[in-house]
Amino acid sequence: MISREETQKILEAAINAPSGSNSQPWRFEFKDNKLYLIALPEKDHPILNYRNRGTWVAHGALIENILIAASAAGFSTDLKIFPDSSRPNVTAKIEFSKSVPREEPLFSSISKRATNRKPYKNTPLTEEQKNIFIESTQKISGVEVKIIEDKKAIQQLAEAASINEVVTLENEKLHKLFFDEIVWTREEEERRGKGLYIKTMELKPPQQAALKLFRKWKVMNLFNKLKFARGIARGNSKTYASCSAMIGIIIKDNDADFITAGRAMERIWLEATRLGLSFHLLTGTLFYYQALAFKREIFSKEHREIIENAYNKTKKYLGVNNETIALLFRVGYGGQPSALSIKKDPLINF
Predict the structure, then answer these.
(1) How does residue 296 score in pLDDT terms, banded at 50, 70 and 90?
(2) Which domain holds residue 187?
(3) Local structure of 213: helix, strand or coil
(4) 177 and 318 together in one domain
(5) Residue 117 in domain
(6) At a CB cut-off of 8 Å and minimum separation 6, what does 305 contact?
(7) Strand 278-281 to strand 90-98: parallel, antiparallel, or no bridges (unpaired)?
(8) What is the pLDDT of residues 54-105, one digit of tens each?
(9) pLDDT-based confidence at residue 166 (cuts at 50, 70, 90)
(10) What pLDDT, on the 0 to 100 scale, is given for residue 347?
(11) Alpha carbon 217 to chain centroid, angstroms
């Protein structure tokens, strides 16, 4: 049997998982030696979270952290994804069995894992590093990992990813949602318990000042007449292209696969952390493409076209045909991020 205290300790480590704008869309139920992960998709972006898939990715990363932390604490685990069709927001059931503590090389990386939005050096990955990334996900079935190092392909992928900024800043509703997610001070972040902390965005002081000005839609809209959002996207694409490699996670197209994608992403992220590499997830354009399936009316005709073109470009340079691109991220040498996001204590019903 696993005690409440041991469960609490495992979850305190595991909640250091990534989620959209640090939304942490989860809570936990523990009963009869079984842990149930409960999704709170209402905490995630209402446009980007098509069929709760952004939430599922976050839960996949959380699950992987739990499995690693449990093993390090001396417990084997039995994992069931979507175990109860009558409760679709129960993403997983994890049953614990007493075992012996195992050496988990990735455990110490869980607390160190962070998003780094800085420009990276263009130092190539070593063959050993690439093999580590590939091998780390081989036991997770249903995902394909593609590592892109060609500079032209990276540039094209970066330009496609930066379409996110164009759509977000040129659409009034999306503009509001974006600025609602920004947290301007550490005190505000502690009070809200979630959000995109401004210092994690790695903006220079003039950029921070401009961002505060652009909070007002009338101001943003005026600058958009001068194609200002597109200039921001061009600048960001240069940052995105500054990396050792772009990595895509490819899946089929069902909800459980997005949990699997999150698990694979987290393993690569933890390995990157262990190897001293920086990591930056680039999913906005991919999730906007999925949003076209159910929120098409949100987007203008022009934005629908550029989202579709950006997604098709991403498919081309990742070498994807009929599969779904779940995630895209860049890795490289970026040093330490300027700030980390705060994680709330796990909410557990015993």
Answers:
(1) confident
(2) 127-332
(3) helix
(4) yes
(5) no
(6) none
(7) unpaired
(8) 999 999 999 999 999 999 999 999 999 999 999 999 999 999 999 999 999 9
(9) very high
(10) 84
(11) 27
Q: Name which of 273, 253, 259 is nearest 332 in CA terms.
A: 273
Q: For residue 126, report the phi and psi dihedrals to the nearest 5 degrees.
A: -80, 160
Quote the mean pLDDT of the chain.
96
**Domains contained in the chain, number:** 2
Residue pair 326/111 in contact by the 8 Å Cβ criterion? no
Distance separating alpha carbons of residues 230 and 170, to the nearest angstrom: 9
R_g (Cα) of the chain, nearest Å = 20
Decide if 210 is inside a domain.
Answer: yes
* Whether residue 36 is found in the same domain as residue 141: no
**204: helix, strand or coil:** coil
Tokens of residue 318, six digits: 């990742």
Does 339 fall in a domain?
Answer: no
DSSP code, position 293: T
Q: What is the CATH number of the domain that holds 234?
A: 3.40.109
Residue with tokens 């991020």: 337
Query: Is this structure's pTM higher than 0.85?
Result: yes
Alpha helices (H) in 242-300, listed in sequence order: 255-274, 284-291
Which candidate, 66, 67, 69, 59, places its Cα nearest to that of 90? Answer: 59
